[in-house]
Amino acid sequence: MRTVLKTTLSASLMLATLAMGGSAAARGDNLTPVGTWKTIDDTTGKAKSLVVITESNGVLQGKIEKLFRGPDEDQNPKCVSCKDARKDQPIIGMVMLSGLKYDGKEWTGGEITDPATGKVYKSKAELTDGGTKLQVRGYVGVPMFGRSQTWVREE
Length: 155
Fold this sequence. Notes:
Mean pLDDT is about 85; it is low at about 1-30. The protein has a single domain (about 25-155), classed as Beta Barrel (Lipocalin), CATH 2.40.128.520. Helices cover about 15% and strands about 45% of the residues. The protein has 2 helices and 8 strands; from the N terminus they run H-H-E-E-E-E-E-E-E-E. An 8-stranded antiparallel beta barrel has the order 1-2-3-4-5-6-7-8.
């Protein structure tokens, strides 16, 4: 009896978690932004970096793992324009995306930092193309006042 009750309770909790959006792990690999993404500059169309997105307690964060820089550029630049604790810290290893929570369709309520300017924007993200692309939007105030980038999932 105890085993049946425990199994029923576990199944009920799992269904409730999935119904509320659940964790990234509960939604499956292609239905979550968790993983490694190649960021694509929305102006030049060129790859800028690799960002690793992780989840903890239903909240996403993204850390810069690698920068794609020309041979004449500093290969390990610092965020000289950042105004918070990241000021003059290496961009590689920087948490540049934080606080995103799943709302049933997309991940919202987060912040994204542009290491080139040090500016911090509100952010949201939505998976497209079956989870192979991530539309990331940084904005001021409301989403219509911002810009978007399409990130591509790395295999």
